[in-house]
Design brief:
It is built from 13 helices and eight strands. The protein has about 425 residues and is of the alpha+beta class.
């Protein structure tokens, strides 16, 4: 049964490795001013050069100031039809957005956007003029990211930290299924989140993104760099999990767990804790610990409810007691990290009810309080009964209930990540970069 699966995996890898020459639309080779460059003198024109001839269409090349004022004239060809130029006028110090839309010789319309600054830092492409910012679809993708982390890290955490001995075959397969789904979902959801962010900045329908130039987002934003690194990292995790299952090598689960834990830090290194004016290495570390603890806690509950409880009655007592001890430490890290991040991100106490970010935080705190109360009931009421050998018949449903509340905590966290904290009095308008 495993060899056909291996053949399918090889076929998928081969398909992914096929050259991209079939998509022969025009590729952007050179721009002036450069991507996210900062210029001390006002440029007279913007120049784009492609690897093949292009045709001008309406709105082929336009340049906008941050207030939406167009500062470009009508575009024209350069020395040949591979080069398009547009003259600029009326530039004042600030950030500028270049938007292009040109017809390739293969009949496809390619599009792109990038930014530069004149005596001013260039805004990230995700904050270009015309971008609407994160939407509900970005929130859903971020939540799916968190859930995939929970399945992956929580499943591996329970397997490696609490159930180290050889497991019954059915239970082992269930752990491989849960962690495999989490790893593959982390890759797929990461791609979706990246595309949604690019779609917003390019202002293109989803189906037209195939012919859009996404390179500025992948190489010139924290989110893009994190996306590339995390995609490669979770591909490695998926490979390690597959090898551990195919060749029955549970020792490979440890490197898979450590690599997954390390690359999950990409969200902390590209979120608010990394781009806020008062960001430090400590705030990024605390944000990572906050996410890791939440993922291990929520995912561990899911692993107990979906794997251990239905498939291994003989391991229920030991797994629950061990997870109870582990969860105590995870909740402590979760609460302490949350308090630190709240103090750092809210300039004043009244921001809790006076700002959108603060109100979202209050909702998250309310859900966390329910989750902590549920966990406390398990720790102080159920754990002593299990220690005496008395297992309540409704415990699995209770674990599923606590898991649902934990997933709601992750949803609230996803909404907070895509919501900018209130600016500090000395930060001015610098919060605009927080979407990078």
């Amino acid at each position: 049964m495993r060899r056909p699966l291996l053949a399918v995996a090889a076929a998928v890898a081969a398909a992914a490795a096929l050259p991209g020459a079939a998509f022969a639309h025009a590729a952007l080779k050179h721009v002036s001013p450069g991507f996210q460059s900062r210029l001390e003198s006002a440029p007279r024109e913007v120049t784009l050069r492609f690897d093949q001839s292009v045709s001008l269409i309406p709105h082929s090349l336009e340049v906008f100031a941050v207030d939406g004022r167009r500062v470009s004239a009508s575009p024209r060809y350069g020395a040949d039809r591979r080069t398009v130029r547009v003259a600029l006028s009326g530039l004042v110090p600030g950030g500028y957005t270049v938007r292009w839309r040109l017809l390739s010789s293969d009949g496809h319309v390619g599009s792109g956007v990038y930014t530069f600054g004149f005596r001013h830092a260039a805004p990230p492409p995700t904050s270009a003029y015309g971008a609407s910012g994160p939407t509900w679809s970005d929130d859903a993708a971020r939540w799916a990211y968190f859930v995939s982390f929970a399945l992956l890290l929580g499943g591996l955490g329970v397997r490696l930290l609490l159930l180290r001995e050889p497991l019954p075959d059915r239970l082992s397969k269930r752990f491989h299924l849960l962690t495999g789904v989490g790893a593959v979902a982390a890759i797929d959801v990461g791609i979706l989140a990246f595309v949604l962010r690019a779609e917003d900045a390019l202002q293109l329908p989803f189906v037209d993104l195939l012919y859009g130039d996404l390179s500025p987002f992948a190489t010139k934003t924290r989110f893009g760099v994190a996306f590339v690194a995390m995609t490669l990292g979770f591909a490695l995790v998926t490979a390690l999990l597959a090898l551990a299952w195919i060749f029955e090598l549970p020792a490979l689960l440890w490197p898979a767990f450590l690599v997954a834990l390390g690359f999950s830090s990409g969200l902390s290194l590209s979120g608010h804790s990394a781009v806020e004016p008062n960001s430090t290495w400590l705030s990024q570390l605390v944000d990572f610990l906050h996410l890791a603890a939440a993922s291990l806690w929520a995912g561990g509950l899911l692993a107990l409810a979906l794997a251990v409880w239905p498939l291994a009655p003989e391991l229920r007592r030991r797994a629950f007691l061990g997870f109870s001890r582990l969860a105590t430490g995870l909740v402590a890290v979760l609460v302490l990290a949350g308090v630190y991040l709240t103090i750092q991100r809210l300039p004043a106490v009244h921001d809790l009810w006076a700002s959108g970010y603060g109100r979202l935080l209050l909702v998250k705190l309310a859900v966390v309080t329910v989750a902590l109360g549920w966990g406390a009931a398990h720790h102080f009421l159920v754990r002593p009964r299990l220690a005496r050998g008395d297992a309540p018949g409704t415990l699995r449903r209770s674990l599923l209930g606590e898991s649902s509340v934990a997933l709601a905590v992750l949803l609230a966290a996803a909404l907070l990540v895509n919501s900018a904290p209130p600016p500090r009095p000395d930060a001015g308008g610098s919060q605009a970069v927080a979407r990078a």
